[in-house]
């Protein structure tokens, strides 16, 4: 069926996302990169899935964290797994590091936006290779950059101000995790799509470790939480 | 499920301001290092200036993904040029290439606003200024990007360049010395970052003259 | 009427299991003026002899930059060499466009070899008539490869191709064990000495050779004429007549490695009538 808006072929495009993951936060620390993301998969405002792994390793030197459309992220993982497989098949002592993977992803995301058929994600890419730490991000229209700390979605609004205050080059692993948990807790309080089940991923020269899911201690007994309208006359 | 997103757009405006000034034997090219989207800052330290050849530099603002793609195309084209001609491209040649590259995407444009600065084959400073689809002009100074509306009239006032309508044509280069030009650029950005929320964080200034290339930095407002 | 029943078509086998057209293409490599390459842990040096086809003409360029980290020296049909160099340049540019990092040399070499191989299996194509010495640097170190028209490729510590390359090979075989830890300067020196061997009596000057270097922290570049002349003078490479040991080149009884391949090359080097590569003797020259 054809109409003025578009043909059947156009309906293949992602015009809006279905199942989405919310923020990913990433930081550099003393020995590498740490990433944090919760495990919720939202269907609009419904919390549809509760155990979605949004961080994956990419070869030996990189990890990726994704927010946005989960199915598109799984498609991206198929691309990346193929990329790494073919890279390994050369078996020649060369391998893709985080920089190469990030650039490849940027090209993929930008090419898809050029075809008006975007992959509906914001991605964070971290890694360590040859003693070089790398942390970057790219979104669904191909905007990309590197930084000492990055965050997608609400994370950019709520976590990065914290990171700008508290991040420094020589964070230990424990300090890094603590900082990320602080960010994730703020997101949990203020981002309605965030859920209290998260993972933290670590990458160092030694390799990738992704933690088991766990939850944060929360405190909901603040007066403002219990009676948010107190002191705001006329509010309901 | 109701649609929650606004209609998808392939473009974004990541802001930023670029300025270039050509002198008799130098060229100053500058841009802030802030990258924004909407009211959020994505990065406070993203360089908008790249060196395309020995004697040409480009500063670009607009949509970062397009800008980066454009930079990569030009870099690749310059490599091919070097393989074929065994030399660096001149700044005026790069200017024409940039125009052609932009126009090639006339009907799905690069959302990129560029100033190209450098030295021409006589060693004279040159500045080329562009729109997104490739119209370009050689000028003595130019400003592009989110702060251009604030900076351009200020430069017009300070540099009092001869009218481009004069016959015979007057030289487009500015009469300022190199250090005066650098100071002027600093003033421009300090002022622009007062009013333009997309300009700030840090100013990167690249100075090109006969003795080579040099960089200077100046901290700008971070709010 | 035909000298050989099986050599009119690239895709036709001889009963002995050979593809004559492909072997003829390999002959073209031997006809070309010599090119040599050698490498240490950190550097690769490529060198070639420049021969003008007439008194009135200049010589053809035989060393090409592919990228900052890859260079190539060719022997055989220069025109084919240029086409393949352009292909390699494109591959490098495309790779760095996608990944913003340099294409690993070994991978480029395989792509190039696959491209050459296709020409040995299509009736409407002809094999490339050029041998390429590809020097490059990647994260696994410095490399030197030899690609030939058959689609075969080999990695070397040092190698020489083209006319009278056997003399250079003999020199390199005698010294290659020292190359691994060699300095940049010594590598160039050995390149010049090896090159001189191929000239057989002719004087080595900066106008009849080209030298190119690449290494860690040093992008590929061909040395300019003055530098080459200075090095020639410095190392006293000139020597009108080659030293006695070197002129005994084709003697390879002591060589540890030179197999039938080297023998075939040696046989071809001074042979005028190469059109009949002695159908039944020894291994197919394709092996090299």
From TrEMBL, chain A:
Function, as annotated: Non-catalytic component of the proteasome.
Similarity-based family: Belongs to the peptidase T1B family.
Pfam families registered for this protein in UniProt: Proteasome
Keywords carried by this UniProt record: Cytoplasm, Nucleus, Proteasome
Gene3D superfamilies: Glutamine Phosphoribosylpyrophosphate, subunit 1, domain 1 (3.60.20.10)
Protein name: Proteasome subunit beta
Key word Cytoplasm present: yes
Organism encoding this protein: Rehmannia glutinosa (Chinese foxglove)
Keyword Nucleus among record annotations: yes
Chain coiled-coil ranges: none
Chief location: cytoplasm
InterPro entries: Ntn_hydrolases_N, Proteasome_alpha, Proteasome_beta4, Proteasome_bsu_CS, Proteasome_sua/b, Proteasome_suB-type
Location of this chain's protein in the cell: Cytoplasm; Nucleus
TrEMBL record, chain B:
Compartments where located: Cytoplasm; Nucleus
Keywords: Cytoplasm, Nucleus, Proteasome
Presence of the UniProt keyword Cytoplasm in the record: yes
Pfam family, one: Proteasome
Record's keyword annotation contains Cytoplasm: yes
Domain of life the protein comes from: Eukaryota
SUBUNIT field: Component of the proteasome complex.
Function: Component of the proteasome, a multicatalytic proteinase complex which is characterized by its ability to cleave peptides with Arg, Phe, Tyr, Leu, and Glu adjacent to the leaving group at neutral or slightly basic pH. The proteasome has an ATP-dependent proteolytic activity.
Similarity comment: family membership: Belongs to the peptidase T1B family.
Protein name per UniProt: Proteasome subunit beta
Organism whose genome encodes this protein: Rehmannia glutinosa
Organism classification: Eukaryota, Viridiplantae, Streptophyta, Embryophyta, Tracheophyta
Automatic annotation (TrEMBL), chain C:
Chain intervals for the UniProt region annotation (Disordered): 239-288
Keyword Nucleus part of the UniProt annotation: yes
Biased composition annotated in UniProt, kind: Low complexity: 244-268
UniProt xrefs under SUPFAM superfamilies: N-terminal nucleophile aminohydrolases (Ntn hydrolases)
Keyword check for Transport: no
Predominant cellular place of this UniProt entry's protein: cytoplasm
Domain Proteasome alpha-type subunits: 6-28
InterPro entries: Ntn_hydrolases_N, Proteasome_alpha, Proteasome_alpha-type, Proteasome_alpha1, Proteasome_asu_N, Proteasome_sua/b
Entries under Gene3D superfamilies matching the protein: Glutamine Phosphoribosylpyrophosphate, subunit 1, domain 1 (3.60.20.10)
The entry's keywords: Cytoplasm, Nucleus, Proteasome
Subcellular location per the Swiss-Prot or TrEMBL entry: Cytoplasm; Nucleus
Sequence similarity: Belongs to the peptidase T1A family.
Record note on quaternary structure: The 20S proteasome core is composed of 28 subunits that are arranged in four stacked rings, resulting in a barrel-shaped structure. The two end rings are each formed by seven alpha subunits, and the two central rings are each formed by seven beta subunits.
Chain's role: The proteasome is a multicatalytic proteinase complex which is characterized by its ability to cleave peptides with Arg, Phe, Tyr, Leu, and Glu adjacent to the leaving group at neutral or slightly basic pH.
Name of this chain's protein: Proteasome subunit alpha type
Protein species of origin: Rehmannia glutinosa
Lineage: Eukaryota, Viridiplantae, Streptophyta, Embryophyta, Tracheophyta
């Amino acid at each position: 069926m054809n109409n003025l808006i578009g043909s059947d072929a156009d309906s293949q495009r992602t015009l809006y996302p279905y199942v989405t993951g919310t923020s990913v936060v990433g930081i550099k620390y003393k020995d590498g990169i740490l990433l944090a993301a919760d495990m919720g998969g939202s269907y609009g405002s419904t919390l549809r899935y509760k155990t979605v792994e949004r961080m994956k390793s990419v070869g030996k030197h990189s990890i990726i964290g994704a927010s946005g459309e989960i199915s598109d992220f799984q498609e991206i993982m198929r691309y990346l797994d193929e990329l790494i497989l073919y890279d390994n098949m050369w078996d020649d002592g060369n391998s893709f590091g985080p920089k190469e993977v990030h650039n490849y992803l940027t090209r993929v995301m930008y090419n898809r936006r050029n075809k008006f058929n975007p992959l509906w994600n914001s991605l964070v890419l971290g890694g360590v290779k040859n003693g070089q730490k790398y942390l970057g991000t790219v979104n669904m229209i191909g905007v990309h950059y590197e930084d000492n700390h990055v965050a997608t979605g609400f994370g950019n609004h709520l976590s990065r101000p914290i990171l700008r205050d508290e991040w420094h080059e020589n964070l230990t692993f424990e300090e890094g995790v603590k900082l990320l948990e602080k960010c994730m807790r703020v997101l949990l309080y203020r981002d309605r799509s965030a859920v209290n089940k998260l993972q933290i991923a670590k990458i160092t020269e030694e390799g990738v470790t992704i933690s088991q899911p766990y939850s944060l201690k929360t405190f909901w007994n603040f007066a403002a939480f219990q009676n948010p309208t107190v002191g705001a006359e006329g509010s309901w | 499920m109701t649609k929650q997103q606004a209609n998808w757009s392939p473009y974004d405006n990541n802001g930023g301001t670029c300025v270039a000034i050509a002198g008799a034997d130098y060229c100053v090219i500058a841009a802030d290092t802030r990258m924004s989207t909407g009211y959020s800052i994505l990065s406070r330290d993203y360089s908008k200036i790249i060196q395309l050849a020995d004697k040409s530099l480009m500063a670009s603002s607009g949509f970062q993904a397009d800008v980066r793609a454009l930079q990569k195309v030009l870099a690749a084209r310059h490599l091919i040029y070097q393989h074929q001609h065994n030399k660096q491209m001149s700044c005026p040649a790069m200017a024409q290439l940039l125009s052609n590259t932009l126009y090639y995407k006339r009907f799905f444009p690069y959302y990129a606003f560029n100033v190209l600065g450098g030295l021409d084959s006589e060693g004279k400073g040159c500045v080329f200024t562009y729109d997104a689809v490739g119209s370009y002009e050689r000028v003595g100074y130019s400003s592009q990007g989110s702060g251009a509306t604030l900076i351009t009239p200020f430069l017009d006032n300070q540099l009092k360049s001869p009218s481009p309508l004069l016959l015979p044509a007057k030289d487009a280069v500015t009469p300022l010395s190199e250090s005066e030009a650098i100071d002027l650029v600093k003033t421009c950005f300090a002022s622009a970052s007062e009013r333009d929320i997309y300009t700030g964080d840090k100013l990167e200034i690249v100075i090109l003259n006969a003795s080579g290339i040099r960089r200077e930095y100046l901290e700008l407002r971070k709010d | 009427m035909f000298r050989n029943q099986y050599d009119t078509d690239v895709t036709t086998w001889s009963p002995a299991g050979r593809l004559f057209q492909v072997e003829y293409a390999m002959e073209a490599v031997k006809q070309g003026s010599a090119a040599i390459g050698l490498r240490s842990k950190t550097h690769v040096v490529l060198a070639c002899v420049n021969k003008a086809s007439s008194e009135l003409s200049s010589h053809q360029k035989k060393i090409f930059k592919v990228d900052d980290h890859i260079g190539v020296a060719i022997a055989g049909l220069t025109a084919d060499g240029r086409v393949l160099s352009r292909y390699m340049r494109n591959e490098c540019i495309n790779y760095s466009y996608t990944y913003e990092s340099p294409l690993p040399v070994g991978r480029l070499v395989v792509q190039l070899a696959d491209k050459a191989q296709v020409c040995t299996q299509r009736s409407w194509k002809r094999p490339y008539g050029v041998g390429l010495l590809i020097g490059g640097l990647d994260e696994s170190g410095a490399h030197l490869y030899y690609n030939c028209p058959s689609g075969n490729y080999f990695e070397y510590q040092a190698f020489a191709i083209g006319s009278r390359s056997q003399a250079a090979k003999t020199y390199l075989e005698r010294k290659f064990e020292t190359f691994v830890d060699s300095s940049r300067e010594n590598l160039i020196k050995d390149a010049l000495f090896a090159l001189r061997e191929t000239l057989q009596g002719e004087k080595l000057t900066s106008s009849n050779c080209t030298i190119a270097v690449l290494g860690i922290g040093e992008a590929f570049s061909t040395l300019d004429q003055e530098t080459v002349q200075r090095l020639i003078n410095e190392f006293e490479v000139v020597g009108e007549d080659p030293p006695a040991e070197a002129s005994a080149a084709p003697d390879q009884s002591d060589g540890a490695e030179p197999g039938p391949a080297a023998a075939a090359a040696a046989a071809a080097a001074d042979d005028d009538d190469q059109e009949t590569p002695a159908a039944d003797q020894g291994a197919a020259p394709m092996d090299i």
